[in-house]
Amino acid sequence: MFEKREGVLLIINMKYIRKNNIYTKKIGGKWYILENNKRTMRELNDVASFIWELLSKELTIEDLVKKVCKEYQVNVEVAKKDILKFITEYAKEGYIIAASGAET
What we know:
Order of helices and strands: EEEEEEHEHHE
Radius of gyration: 13 Å
Helix content: 25-40%
Largest sheet: 3 strands, antiparallel
Oligomer: single chain
CATH topology: Arc Repressor Mutant, subunit A
Mean pLDDT: 85
Structural class: alpha+beta
Strand content: 25-35%
Shape: globular
CATH architecture: Orthogonal Bundle
Strand order of the largest sheet: 7-3-8
Distance between the termini: 28 Å
Number of helices: 3
């Protein structure tokens, strides 16, 4: 199944992972991403931090939906919508990639 969002083609059953060469820091349970080109830090909210942490391993969108639903007791459609938005935004920024293109 394919879904196109904001110029990014997402494949629901493809595995995604966060890019390894992005500078991140976990402080007090939240993740921060250093945006080199803007010289700023991006703070991730609680759910985004949870997803970011999960993406240290290769996971599909459906895997992420199941884990977010279990952790936050939200319904599947709400979780999927939010995860697709997160993946789209962060893939567009180059922070998340398809696992087959993962860098070490």
